[in-house]
Amino acid sequence: MKLFLSLQLSTILVILLFDGRACMKIIKGKEAKAHSRPYMVHIQQSPELCGGILIKPHWVLTAAHCNINLTANITLGAHSISAVEKEKQFRKTNRVITHELYKDGSFNYDVALLQGDSGGPLICNGVLRGVVSFGNIRCGIPESPAVFTDLNSKIVCWIYKQLSGLL
Predict the structure, then answer these.
(1) 91, 106, 112, 137: which could join 74 in a potential S-S bond, CB 3.0 to 4.6 Å?
(2) In what order do the strands lie in the sheet with 146-150?
(3) Which residues lie below 8 Å from residue 119, measured CB to CB, with a gap of 6+?
(4) Three-state SS for 64?
(5) How many whole angstroms separate alpha carbon 37 and alpha carbon 76?
(6) Which of the pair, 102 or 145, is modelled with greater confidence?
(7) Is residue 31 pLDDT above 50, yes or no?
(8) Which long-range contacts (CB under 8 A, 24 or more apart) does 34-37 make?
């Protein structure tokens, strides 16, 4: 399982660069099979909640507007935040790197990286395409759409630049 997860995670950024497909809309999303998305991350920083995606071991991609700091608690492997699940892993935040072109109140370059001790993803046709930038506080409501930051080539290059200097 660890090898599978490592291989899956190590290919996410490569897929971003080479897959040109894009989703134009999400219609009637549905609950994922329990624990089928092990890279999904829940970030709790009282009283705010944010989502993220594990892009490499120890690195989470989220939205910059979440203003994550070192008090944030990270949960990995959860299907339900409130239920007791053996798959859950809990981490603390060691470091936050916000995109240098992000400006508070703007939704351009709304991305940040978190290094854990070890905003939610948009996945289209099995490919990571974005992170939640803004929308209604309640997720998954059909009448309440969310807007995502596109993980374009500039942002993907920024992620690689940040991670290559730190690994």
Answers:
(1) 91
(2) 121-124, 127-135, 146-150
(3) 50, 51, 52, 62, 63, 65, 66, 110, 131, 132, 133
(4) helix
(5) 10
(6) 102
(7) yes
(8) 34/79, 35/77, 35/79, 35/85, 35/87, 37/123
Query: What pLDDT sits at residue 47?
Result: 80
Does residue 148 or residue 78 have the better pLDDT?
78
- What is the residue type of 25? K
The residue type of 160 is Y
> To which residue do tokens 């948009």 refer?
122
The angle at the Cα of 124, spanning 119 to 128, to the nearest 5 degrees, equals: 50
Supply the pLDDT for residue 25: 54
The two three-digit tokens of residue 161, written as one number: 């630049």
CATH of range 2-164; options 3.40.50.2300, 3.90.1300.10, 3.40.190.150, 2.40.10.10: 2.40.10.10
pLDDT digits (tens, 9 = 90+) for 54-70: 888 788 999 999 999 98
User: Are 93 and 72 within 8 A, CB to CB?
Assistant: yes
pLDDT digits (tens, 9 = 90+) for 60-119: 999 999 999 988 999 988 988 889 998 888 888 888 999 999 998 888 999 999 887 446
